[in-house]
Amino acid sequence: MVDTNPFLQASVSDGSDPIGPQVTRRKPIKEQLSIFFGLLAVGLCVAFLIGNNISDNAHEHENECGSLASLNSMKPELLRPVSRGPAAGVSEKSNRFFAKVDGTFPAYPWNNSMLSWQRTAFHFQPEKNWMNDPNGPLFYKGWYHFFYQYNPNAAVWGDIVWGHAVSKDLIHWLHLPLAMVADQWYDKNGVWTGSATILHDGKIIMLYTGSTAEAVQVQNLAYPADHSDPLLIHWVKYPGNPVLVPPPGIDNKDFRDPTTAWLTSEGKWRVTIGSKINKTGIALIYDTKDFINYEMLDGLLHAVPGTGMWECVDFFPVSETEENGLDTSINGPGVKHVVKVSLDDERHDYYAIGTYLEKNGTWIPDQPEIDVGIGIRYDYGIFYAAKTFYDQNKKRRVLWGWIGESDSEAADTQKGWASLQSIPRTILFDQKTGTNLLQWPVEEIESLRLKRNEFNQVKVQAGSVVPLNVASATQLDIIAEFEIDKEALERATGSNVTFSCRTSGGAAERGALGPFGLLVLADERLCERTPVYFYIAKGSHGNLNTFFCNDQSRSSAASDVDKQIYGNFVPVLKDETLSLRILVDHSIIESFAQGGRTVITSRVYPTRAIYGAAKVFLFNNATEASVTASLKIWEMNSAFIRSYPRHQKF
Amino acid sequence: MKSFIIFLFLVFPVEAFRPTLLLGNLIERTCKQTPFYDLCIWSLKSNPESCNADVKKLAQIMVDSLKTKATDTLDLIDELLEDGLALDPAMRRALTSCAERYNVIIRADVPEITEALKTGNYKFAEKGTNDAAIEANSCEMEFPGKSPLTDMNKVVHDVSVVAASIVKIILNS
Questions:
Q1: Can you give the pTM of this predicted structure?
Q2: Catalytic residue (choose from A3, A17, A56, A133)
Q3: What is the complex's ipTM, to 2 decimals?
Q4: CATH fourth-level superfamily of A451-636
Q5: For residue A636, which of A17, A147, A351, A475 is within the disulfide window of CB 3.0 to 4.6 Å?
Q6: Start and end of every Beta-fructofuranosidase N-terminal domain (chain A) (predicted)?
Q7: Number of compact structural domains in chain B
Q8: To which CATH superfamily is domain A121-441 assigned?
C-alpha cells in the first residue's frame, strides 16, 4: 500500500526516542500542498503498477528506511543482461581491495553535487587526479614534508611521479611543485616509492625505486639540491644511478620500496627491500656506508611462506616502557622491533612485533602464529602501502597510509580525483596487551575542533536509535564511551558460533549483547547510514569477545560502491570501558577502538546523507542489553589544504 | 596422433591421468583458468604474437583485444548518437552515458592496465580489467528497454573478465 502522504517521515521502529520528536508542526498551506502531491503520487504509482511490481518495492523501501531490523537490502531484482557465470569468482575476490560491486546493478547517476561533496575537508589529497603510496615523510628545518605517488594526467594509476607538500603541523598542508619526475632512463617507467634517511650531519638522502626504460625495478639515490632551502623544492638524482639492481634469483619485477636506513653497531647504514621467492614474501637486507655502494647480507631480515610479494616493507623500533617514539636506529633493552609489510596479493598491511638480531641482520617475531602477513593488520578497512617516520620534532613515530577509493573508476574520472591519505597517526607499543600497536590521530588535529557537543550518560535501550543534535555532521571528531548493562552480560547465553564482522549481517544482525554504537553519515530517515559499532559475542565458556565493525551495506542508495562490512576482534581488558573515536570527513570515516588497538578506515559515498542532510545517531540493536553512552562530538573546521602561496618565491 | 598419445601413455603413465598436461600448451592451460574458455582461446590464437608468449604477454594480448572491442563499441555508439532527433530521449541518455563509460575504458583503464603489466605492478592491472568489465556491464544496464549494444557489451565485459583472470594467474604465480 503506497503512502499517500510522502511528507510524513517513516517512524523509527523498535522503541521510542527519548531525546525528542522528529516530526515538526506543519502550517495549513503545506497540508494542502501535501494532499496535492499525495494525489499526484498516487496517480504516478498507479501508472507504475501496470506491468510492474514496484508498489511492493516502495512499501519495502518505506520500511527499510528507519528500520535497523531489516536484513539484507531489498533492491528490485533487475534483469541480468549477460550471463556472468564463474566470473563472479573473479570480481568478488578482487572486490576486497578495489571493492567494486559486481556490476549487475545499474550504475548510479551521480550528479556534481553528490560528487563534489565527497572531497574531504581535512585529509591530505592533491587538487585533482590520482594518488597512491606515501613517500619519504620527514621533518626538516621546521617543516613536515610529505611526498606521494601521483599521476599528473588521470584519476587512475599511471605515469607515476613524486608529488610534494609541506606543513607546520601535519594537518595544514601546502602543495609544492612535483619533487621528482620520470626524466631518467632508470625511472622512465615510474618514479616509485621510497623513503628518507636523515644523516648524522642533518642532511637528507632519499632512496626510491625506479622502473627503468626496460621496466626493471632498481633503487636510486636522490638528495635535496639545496639543503639550506627549508621547503626542499628541488631534488637531484645521483648521476651514478641506479645504486641497486635486482640481485641474482630475484625477478626484475619483484624488487621495490626501500626503507629508511638505520645504523648498525659498526657504524654502517642498513636498509631493507621487500621481494618474494615463489610464494614466500621476503625482506632483503643491505649494508652501506655512502648509500652508493652496498653489500647484500647473506640472510634475509625475515620471510614468511605463502604471503606473496612484500611491498612497502617498514622496520622500526618501539619502546616497551616509554610513551614516545624512537629514532629508527635505536636498539637495546626495553626496545622491540616491528616488521610491517604490504601484501600485494590481497592489498592489506600487516605488522608483527619481535626482536631484532643486529649481528646477522635478522628479526624474529614474538608470536610466530601471528607472524607478519598472517596476523594483525594496521587497519581492517581500506589502508595500504603505509609508512612511518620518526618525528624528531615531537619525539614520536608517525604513520601514513594510502586510502584508495571504493567507488567506480567512472565516478573517479567524473569527479576528477581518486585517493586520500589517512590522518597521520602516532604509533606506540600497547603496554597493556603487549601484543598490539596503538594508533591514534596526531594531536594537532584537535586544532580543527570547533563547536563541542556533549552527551552524558545517555541510556540507549535494546533496540533503539537516539538522534544526536549536532548541527553539521559531515566533519566530526567523536569520542565515545559505552557501558553495557552488567546483568545482561552475565545473563546472556554463550554459544559456539564464531562471529566475524565481514560475514555477519552487519548492524541489522541482532545479538544479545550487540551491535551498538553510532550511525554516521545517516540521513534523518536512516535510509542511508554507516554504523560504527561494537558487537560482544559470548562464548560457550562464558568468555566475552568484543568485535569492532564498520557496516557499509546501507551506507548509500548507490549500488556501484563497496558495501562490505569491515572489522575485527578488539582486545578489551577487564574493567576497561568500551571506547571509540571516529573522524568523519565527507567520504572517509576513520574509526579507532580501545585507544587505537583496532582501527577501521572506510570510504562511503552517500547520495542523500550529504551536506546539511547528514546526521549522527546513537544506536543499540542488541536484543537484551541496554548501553549507557557518553560522548563528545566536535564539529571540525577545514584544514584549507591548498597550493603554497604563489607570491612567495621559491 | 593416436600413436603419439599411446607413446605418451607409455612414457608418462602418471601424466596420462592429467589431460591438461597432455593436451595443454600455455594458451590452453591459461584459458582453462578463465571463465570464458572459447573466447580466451579465440582471442589469443587469432593473434600471431601469442606463439611462444609467456603469461604476461598473453595478458597484454587480451588487453589489446579489449581496446579494439571497446573502440569498436564506442564507434557504434557515436554512430547511433548521430541519429540525433530521431532518437528517443531515454535512448539518447543511455547512449551518452555509455559513451562516457567507454571513454573511461579506452582512455583510463587500458593505459592503466598496459602500464601495470609492463612495469610489473600487477594489482593495478587487476583493478583496471575489473573496472572495464564493470563499465561494460553498467552501460548495458543503462538501457530501460532493449539495448542496441548487448552483443558488444557482452564481448567487452567477457574479454575484460578473461584479462582479469589472466592477471590473477600472474599475481598468484
A1: 0.86
A2: A133
A3: 0.85
A4: Exo-inulinase; domain 1 (2.60.120.560)
A5: A475
A6: 21-115
A7: 1
A8: Glycosyl hydrolase domain; family 43 (2.115.10.20)
